[in-house]
Specification:
The protein has two domains: about 210 residues, Medium-chain alcohol dehydrogenases, catalytic domain (Quinone Oxidoreductase, Chain A, domain 1); about 130 residues, Rossmann fold, CATH 3.40.50.720. It has eleven helices and 17 strands. Helix 4 packs across helix 5 and helix 4 crosses helix 10.
Length: about 350
């Protein structure tokens, strides 16, 4: 069948209306009418070929919330009418060591991305959530239990939420831990909310004095303007964990020096140009670590959604029409959004 979508026909062309194919639901598939789709910076990188390997036409979107319209004969976990989510993956090899451990994001044969991933279906690559509907293997579909009026704000949890939740959980963030969140954007605002909900003492780092009150409103106990050397120095050797969400190249030493002995700073943003090489002595003499983390597996993403529903956590969003996506991209590049754009997919009908 054919559905309406918005996508880029080439790297130097704006997104435009497209008709794209969707397969019929097979025995293990779930067909979903998409209600909302979050707008991630990855979407912009991919459609403009700022990341290698974009296949055109490219229909982005991997923060999807919608309603089940049909299920395959072998599907038992979902039924027509269920509210569900789809994140960054729609398949993986299902037989490597990582997949066996429920860590499909680290699939040793490469997971299949929700868009721009290789697939047997025509036209040979996946199309994402800037579309009316999607068909996904039931193993990669997630249950959403938030109230109906929060569904648009749930969409960014499927990428921004799990990208920050996974490292917070892996490094055991919780009561009694002092946790820093670097950057107060789409990812960082979720990091502050989640670390706060986990019971940690949360310190937000921003380069902008104007974001101090915003960060506190999100749940930060303290806010540090990272350009203020005195404010930074006052927190030396005091952090158990720092989650660094900034994707721009910057000096990591300013933050590693704030870690306690055995503290870790985890990076979740991939910079366009490499960070300056860190001071290795600062790591060696306090047994500090710099680590990285990539989204989460399906089981952990479900855990995150359930945790957020229980704690009342959603993203702070601005709803847009799909016809305004290029304006949204321009504003996102200027960090002119608090804190995530979400597409009302009903506007595709226009």
């Amino acid at each position: 069948m054919t559905v309406k979508a918005f996508g880029a026909p080439a790297a130097d062309r704006p997104l435009e209306p497209l008709d794209i194919p969707r397969r019929e639901a097979g025995p293990h598939d779930v067909a979903i009418d998409i209600a909302y789709c979050g707008v991630c910076h990855s979407d912009l990188h991919q459609v403009r070929s700022e990341w290698d390997g974009t296949i055109y036409p490219c229909v982005p979107g991997h923060e999807i919330v919608g309603h089940v319209t049909s299920v395959g004969s072998d599907v038992t976990k979902f039924k027509v009418g269920d509210v569900v989510g789809v994140g960054c993956m729609v398949d993986s090899c299902q037989h490597c060591a990582s997949c066996d451990e429920g860590l499909e994001q680290y699939c040793e044969n490469g997971f299949v991305g929700t868009y721009n991933g290789k697939t047997d279906d025509a036209p040979g690559h996946t199309f994402g959530g800037y579309s009316q509907s999607i068909v996904v293997n039931d193993k990669f579909v997630l249950k959403v239990t938030h109230p109906q009026d929060q569904l648009a704000a749930v969409a960014p949890l499927l990428c921004a939420g799990i990208t920050t939740y996974s490292p917070l959980r892996h490094w055991n963030v919780g009561p009694g831990k002092k946790v820093g969140i670097v950057g107060i954007g789409g990812l960082g605002h979720m990091g502050v909310k989640l670390a706060h909900a986990m019971g940690a003492h949360v310190v937000a780092f921003t380069t902008s004095e104007s974001k101090r009150e915003d960060a506190k409103a999100l749940g930060a106990d303290e806010v540090i303007v990272s350009r203020n050397e005195d404010e930074m120095a006052a927190h030396a050797n005091s952090f158990d964990f720092i989650l660094n969400t900034v994707a721009a190249s910057h000096n990591l030493d300013a933050f590693t020096m704030l870690l306690k002995r055995d503290g870790t700073m985890t990076l979740v943003g991939v910079p366009e140009h490499p960070h300056p090489s860190p001071n290795i002595g600062a790591l060696i003499f306090k047994r500090r670590a710099i680590a990285g983390s990539l989204i989460g597996g399906i089981a952990e993403t479900q855990e995150m959604l359930d945790f957020c529903a229980e704690k009342g956590v959603v993203a702070d969003i601005e709803m847009i029409r799909i016809q305004d996506i290029e304006t949204a991209y321009e504003r996102m590049q200027r960090s002119d959004v608090k804190y995530r754009f979400v597409i009302d997919n009903a506007t595709l009908d226009a």
